[in-house]
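Fig. S4 source data, part A: sequence.
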Amino acid sequence: MMKYFFITSFILLTFIGCELEDITIPFNFERDAPSWLKIKIDSLSNTNRYMYMKVFRYEWRGNYAYYIMNPISSCAYCELYDQNGNKINFSDDETFQDFLINKKNEILVWEWRK
């Protein structure tokens, strides 16, 4: 009985000790942001909408979606773009709900810093 306890403990500790190392590379705005997004952020810098703005990238429907949000505006100025820079307008509530439920892998791409 003790023999099985030690074998089980050894196997368990081996699996715990062999946890895979995180090899993901952090998002780098200058390197990883698409050029259209950099231009968009630069154009917003001349408006009042720029303060406290954040840009997130999500995976949705097999592609990237970029969500530009301004938390102080109640999202009156929030916008969603596909990976090619085309603005996504939700034609119905079902598609919007699909985005909210199925978006994944949120990454903060850029944020306003004073």
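Fig. S4 source data, part B ends here. Strands lie at 54-60, 63-69, 79-82, 104-111.
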